Please model this.
Amino acid sequence: MSWLSRLFSSRKSAAQLDLAEAQQQALAAWRALPAPDLTRPHYQTRYIVVDVESSGLDMNHDRLISIGAVAVVNGVIDFQDVFETILRQDEVSTTDNILIHGIGGSAQRAGIDPPDALLAFLNYCAKAPLVAYHSVFDQTMIERALQRYLGVALQATWIDLAWVMPDLFRERIDAQVSLDNWLELFAIENIQRHNAVSDALATAMLLQAAISRGGGRGAKTPASFVDTEKSRRWMRRYG
Amino acid sequence: MSNSATQMLVTATSEFLRRFPPFDRMEAEAMQYLCERLKLAYYAKDTPIVTPDMGVLQHFYIVQRGKVLARGRGEVGVIDYSTMSLSPGEAFPIGSVTAQRPSTNTYTAVEDVFCYELPVDDYFALMRMSPTFNAFCTQYIASLLGQSRQQLQAEFAQRAAEQQTMNSPLSSIIKKEPVFARPETSLREVIGIMAAGHIGSIIIVDDEQRPTGIFTQSDVLKRVVLPGVALEAPIAAVMSPDPHTLPVASTAYDAVLAMALYGIRHVLAVDEGGRLKGVVSERDLFALQRVGLRQIRQSIETAPDIGLLCQAAKDVRQLALNMLAQGVGAEQLTQFISALNDTLTRRVIQLNLDRHDLYGIDWAWLSFGSEGRDEQTFSTDQDNGLLFICTDIMDREQTQLRLLDFARDVNADLDRVGFPLCRGNIMASNPELCLTLEEWEEKFLGWIRTPDPKALLNASIFFDFRPLFGQFHLAHRLRLTLLKATQDNRLFLRMMAQNALSVLPPLGRIRDFVTDADIEHPGTIDLKKFGARLFVDAARVFALSSGVAATNTAQRLRLSGAALKVSSDESAGVVEGFNFIQLLRLRHQNFELEHGRAGDNRLDPDQLNEVERRILKEAFRQARKLQQRLKLDYQT
Model:
């Protein structure tokens, strides 16, 4: 009945989670951070591009295994400012799944205690806007894990490049396509496909292109990317 | 932040950079240092990355993806690359960053570009840390691309070290104390000194020993004897005043230049105070070269027999090597070799005309292929034919037999002189290539009508014909027929274009060069097949389509470029690319010949230094540009 227990456990609040003192302090420090100003220009913004690997593609039942993140700060990627964590798994994912992301059974078991892993992630992101390609999946996986292990509702601003890119580069691809299509178009080499950091870096390079293009087209801020995404989604639904 | 993630990206970056020089040779520790400090930035198409008005630069850039175009502002250099494109793995702007000054070039993204950026402080730290990187940057600055010729020059100067070169200072050329006289010295006295010392010229100096005039042997006749000037007159009355002087530190080359510029035979070397130190005559400078152009020409033109011509042929090569050493460009050099080979061939023909009676026949000796294009290199075999006029069809057989007899002897003699017989039998002694004007025209038109692969191959050899001896106007008539038949013949030109596009520049996607096109010689590039020919074939199509009569590739490119409205900068870029490849061929052949091997065209790019590799790459890019233009024009 693991799914049932997980369902219930995800409803727990932080107080019920028995977090250690240090963990509670870290969480409080994160909560105290101010919300980001999404109306500042791209070139004065810290974006965090994330990619997750999980035990499968079922957003409701599969478990978060790793998070990779690359910061794009003032338009530039600094290899010193990147993040990766593997959450310790009690139950190792299937062999087929391992073949996808390459995080083997022992690596999964040797991962970091999930609350600490997630606290490290929160500490890395602070309250920066988060960016991903097909972000719903990343967002759901991360939010669920935060809720379950830390009792935190993330409430971050998410930007989905799968919607923003075709709006900015209509002359190239004006449709919802896979990440690989965009990477190919920009000749971006993915170092190691399905490695969370590598995918995040590739996505971050796409964000650099988006920032540059957006700047020349009136989409000069994170907020404008959010609007772009909203209107694209709306158009798709009703247009 | 996160060590494992950082290390992964650093490793990936390092693996990427290792594909390119100088990173492929860089010390592991320095590489780690570099990759840990790189940041990645994006530049959209047409965005400037570095401009002169950005001031002193804060970053050093390495292209990660896409192409960056460098555009200079009135760059001066021997080879003037006004624009240059940079590909992944190439770094910029090395000179400006090192010198801590604003960039002289503008660097623009011509595609979507990702660039690694290294803060300048880290750049200097890396320079201190890595001898490889340091050598690369210093070498780069020392030569600053486009001045490759000077590098080649330095290399050859060493080989020609036993001889004095044009770079020697005048002080090393002056062997004798100068002979001089005061202005008031009488003519009689001056001429006496000259006669006694067997001196050709005397310098007139003032009290400070500064030259005020010069008086030479030839002046005696024109200025003294003929006008009947009294021998008691002071020398000042008849001397040439204000002789040309050069500082004693100037080079032989400066002296040659001054002589050519002012039409003078003597240059006076003076010290800082303007005092006479010596006299350099035209003859002194010619003596610099063991063999001089004029002498060789003369010895060829007056050689009484084939034996002496053989010696002259050797001198041609020696002289060509000297010129290579003195930094003469490939275009001039190949033309020069062709010109001297022409002279040799003409002399061989002349000598044979003494033994063969061709009276009453109008004929022209044609050369084909590289000789026809004035592009001969050191290793060159015969490619020739005969063209004649036959007014009476009944005489044709007889006339051809007489010419063939003559041609056989010429071919054999040319072989002895150093032009091996053509393996493909493209020689005037071949009855197929000893034809009347009408027959040649029919042959050419046949190839144009039915452009099968064989015909196209023939076209690429024979259409580059050039008359060498005899009635040149016959060859011009053939040229007119050819141009008329090709100029608006889209079908034929398209087939020629397709043929020209069948070989691509050996530029690799990952490595710089494709070096495995020839299975028998891995690791090398055939600079003729995959280099020069790319330009030659394309230039031929452009020339034939725009009615350009020239056969020389550089000329064809310039003239047809003008006719096809290609900017002269662009044409010049292509020509420079071609010339650089020719220069490498010459150098390589010379090296092979010196080591007793048949001079081939197979170059190992790993043997090139960094600058040469970059320029060779640029040369191939120019070939690619040319091919793209061809593709566009003929929709192939």
